[in-house]
Amino acid sequence: MEQQFSTESACQDYLVKMRWPDGFRCSDCQSSQSWKTNRGLMMCRQCGRQHSVMAGTIFHRSRLPLRTWFRAMWWVTNQKTGVSALGLQRLLGFGSYETAWMLLQKLRRAMVRPGRDRLSGHVEVDETFVGGVDPDGGRRHIGNKALVGVAVEIKGEGMGRIRLHRVKDSSAKSLIPFIKQAVESGSAITTDGWQGYARLSKEGYLHTPHVVQGKSQNKKLSISLLPRVHRVASLFKRWLMGTHQGSVSLHHLDYYLDEFTFRFNRRTSTHRGQLFYRLVQQAVAIEPAPYNKIVMQTPTDRGNLS
Asked: Number of folded domains in the chain?
């Protein structure tokens, strides 16, 4: 990696191939003829417009060299459990923790491919709490914690792809939109007997609810009937505590869910360079994430999931 991307120019050339895989095309005149300026800009030969390969991507207006971005992406994709902001700060020698944290937040936004395929076939669906449950609440009492929807493809005795997304509550109004976004219509879905899933058959799914009886056995029976979603939920919480020590705010939780999903769905890949390629490819396909948008907090989202 260090040899291939030893200069800023080499990094820029790589991004050009990622952004215009079929060749450069001017956004004004649609010309394919261009040349590269000394500042690394693509100059259209026909109309003279200059194009920055970084504009409109997660690298937009970044003061960090592309070589630093590429090194960060390499570490992020080549560490099995990822890397925390503190770990990245030490690895890349950043002067501040905030720089490493902001870089990782932007990369997490690139881990979801625009227009990605939904899950299909036979899928398990359930919800899980992140941060624990209030001691005085019931099984689905949220309190000041976060509720996360979990969908897992069933592949024989194993698991296929997954989808994780924070949901407002356990009502049908929150759960059904999550499922429709995550699972292809017509798929077979297995859930517990919660009433929030009762409408799935009317939404075009083959719904099989497993009704659990008895309060003392609810948790054990639910785990045995929906083993995959509970396994994924357990792995996510372990990753959150192990890599990030649980220091994740509610406001940013969805992006940590995206990172875990990115890693889990590519867990069998033997070519780590392919993960780096995919992350760079998606990094030039999404819109910029300005500082103010990332750090903004709403009153209900303050606090960490510790």
From this structure: 2
